[in-house]
Amino acid sequence: MTEPARVLIAADKFKGSLTAAQVAEHVTAGLLAARPGTRIRSLPVADGGDGTVAAAVAAGSTPRTTEVTGPLGTPVTASWALRGTTAVVEMAEASGLRHLPPEHFAPLAATTHGTGELLRAALDAGARTVVLGVGGSATTDGGAGMLVALGARLLDADGAPVPAGGGPLRALHTADLSGLDGRLAGTEVVLAGDVDNPLTGPEGAAAFYGPQKGAGRREVAELDTALEHFVRVLDGGDPDGRAAGCARSPGAGAAGGLGFAALLALGAVFRPGIEVLLEVLGFDEAVRDADLVITGEGSLDRQTLHGKAPAGVAAAARARGRKVVAVCGRLALGTEELRGAGIEAAYPLTALEPDPDRCMADAAALLERAAGRLARDHL
């Protein structure tokens, strides 16, 4: 008697329609309808952005919530996760665009203070490794708010605290990091993200990502100048100082420059988000017991090839000699590009329903149908 196929579902969310856990649920339903008896394991994944904490919880971490300062200074409730002494923190939970009222951007004033408070909560809970997912931020303050929440003093020429946000950093006169929480010295901080921008310049935090946070041309220039000034003050005017080096490092521009502050002051290491999350989620162990790996996300496109979850899953699975196929909302990659990423075939929902609005609205049912097709082709 033939043994039932063993399948590992390791897909990201379909943004705007299904969470990663829901994707796994509906793929499972479609597979079992077409191939009853299939042995299926689900491991929802994320790449450091939205859904990172949810993926950690789905893999066994304990969910936590903490009230922190939101990007506009008002309280928000932020979720994070803890497993043993490893915490998974999603900066967007504290300082993300999701906490802004519709069409109410604050590019100059939004703060990362709440992210610092989340890190402090993780330290209070005994974390000695913190995976800090960076994506979806509302901020461009270079991580200044985070540093203040962790004990730094950022003062103007009169000795008063500089107001929150990236814009006011242009008035910074003194940066004193000596009061940073001493527990950070014994804590490993891993920046998990999928962008490698520097802090400033044409590819920097303000120029590259500021417009999607509501910054016009004037605000982008103001923020970039303020961030450059922030670096100079931290280095005491030395153009070859440590802060200047960190500002040029890949990932320094992540989350509006929060990556810079983490690299400089927290001793953080920047790594591709999906690579980090696969380790946290125990992917290597799970894939050993799989004949087929199913990955995916809402849109499989050129961005997928540059550090997004499906490409990371495919690379890790193929390294173990496992076959990989994908499900997605829409497919904007050719066959050769897919195979170059280690994905043998993809099953887009738009092949079943070409209307984008209906496709998103009916994603659950369509995904079950797509999974049925996948099962008949590969199981």
Description:
It is a single chain. The protein is an alpha/beta fold. It has two domains: 6-43 and 282-378, Glycerate kinase, domain 1 (Rossmann fold, 3-Layer(aba) Sandwich); 52-274, Glycerate kinase, domain 2. The protein has 15 helices and 13 strands. It has helices spanning 20-34, 52-58, 91-95, 113-124, 144-149, 205-209, 217-234, 242-248, 258-265, 273-281, 283-287, 309-319, 335-340, 356-361, 363-378; strands at residues 6-9, 39-42, 62-69, 75-83, 86-90, 129-133, 153-155, 174-176, 188-193, 269-272, 292-300, 323-331, 346-348. The strands form three sheets. A six-stranded mixed β-sheet has the order 3-4-5-6-9-10, with helices on both faces. It has a five-stranded parallel β-sheet with strand order 2-1-11-12-13, with helices on both faces. Strand 1 (6-9), helix 1 and strand 2 (39-42) form a beta-alpha-beta unit. Helix 1 crosses helix 15. The longest helix is centred in the middle third of the chain and has 18 residues, at 217-234. The mean pLDDT is 95.
